[in-house]
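$ ./design --mode recover --in tokens.txt
reading tokens...
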């Protein structure tokens, strides 16, 4: 049994076609077919049902392919250890980020980071928290920017900042004349929310004194901008993370109201697998993010007190 054979069965499972699988591996179809057959003979079971079109894995094949995927991931990580020890700031970094953070944070640090580390190739995916965790666990993602803390074993969290929640209250709303908004004034039926799957939705609902979610308008969106426009149209109010308010037009900024003390906040962290071979570049990324934050956020509620000292330094 070889890593090459494992690579071939994974490719065949991905493409379900011998020719396309062989092309993806850069070999001829007979070569790929022969190596898979040798592996099947060694295991004593067929891994694929060749009588079906497209080709399908057998029950034994499903288990073997799953194990092959895990083995190949670990083999790649093993080969990275030596390379990254010699030169940690090179290679590929797969970064995940939740949609409620991405539009307000990425542009602040990404340019400086890639200019500083020119040999690091960064790929970025916007995903929900659960999707990012799944990709971190199976090593399809190196690090993610998520709201924390998380209840997930094997993950390491580097806190970056605490971000206050603010209320966005349009004109003629029952709270429009208030200087600030208290939790007791929040009503779930009056609150415009992100769609299910976004942790910010659950955090917002948790602030409401009443648990009733019955409302005249239900919105399925993943964008705060949509909620702001609906609020401006008189369909309710919404809650926003502080960074989402910084680039609003002046007229809309007047509709942003702070929450009363103790202010609700969310913690944003860099999350990676414990023992990641890319630890040094992840630490460098944390440093760049912290230093790119607006001063008001960096000093909010002792944010930097929770961050390791070398991240807090300019």
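writing sequence...
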């Amino acid at each position: 049994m070889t890593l090459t054979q494992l690579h071939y069965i994974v490719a065949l499972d991905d493409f379900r076609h011998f020719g396309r699988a062989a092309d993806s591996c850069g070999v001829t179809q007979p070569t790929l077919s022969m190596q898979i057959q040798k592996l099947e003979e060694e295991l004593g079971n067929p891994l694929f049902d060749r009588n079906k079109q497209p080709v399908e894995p057998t029950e034994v094949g499903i288990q073997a392919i799953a194990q092959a995927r895990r083995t190949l991931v670990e083999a790649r990580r093993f080969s990275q250890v030596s390379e990254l020890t010699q030169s940690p700031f090179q290679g590929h970094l797969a970064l995940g980020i939740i949609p409620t953070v991405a539009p307000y944070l990425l542009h602040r640090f990404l340019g400086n980071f890639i200019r500083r580390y020119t040999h690091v190739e960064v790929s970025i995916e916007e995903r929900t928290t659960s999707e990012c965790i799944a990709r971190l666990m199976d090593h399809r993602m190196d690090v993610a920017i998520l709201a924390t803390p998380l209840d997930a074993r094997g993950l390491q969290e580097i806190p970056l900042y605490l971000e206050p929640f603010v209320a966005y209250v349009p004109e003629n709303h029952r709270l429009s004349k208030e200087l600030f908004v208290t939790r007791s004034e929040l009503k779930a039926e009056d609150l415009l929310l992100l769609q299910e799957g976004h942790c910010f939705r659950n955090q917002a609902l948790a602030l409401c004194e009443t648990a009733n979610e019955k409302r005249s308008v239900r919105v399925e969106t993943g964008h705060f901008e949509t909620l702001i426009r609906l609020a401006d149209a008189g369909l309710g109010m919404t809650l926003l993370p502080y960074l989402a308010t910084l680039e609003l037009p002046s007229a809309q900024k007047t509709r942003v109201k702070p929450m009363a003390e103790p202010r609700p906040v969310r913690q944003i962290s860099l999350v990676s697998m414990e023992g990641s071979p890319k630890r040094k570049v992840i630490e460098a990324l944390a440093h760049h993010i912290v230093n790119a934050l607006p001063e008001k956020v960096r000093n909010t509620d002792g944010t930097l007190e929770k961050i390791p000292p070398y991240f807090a330094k300019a």
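exit 0
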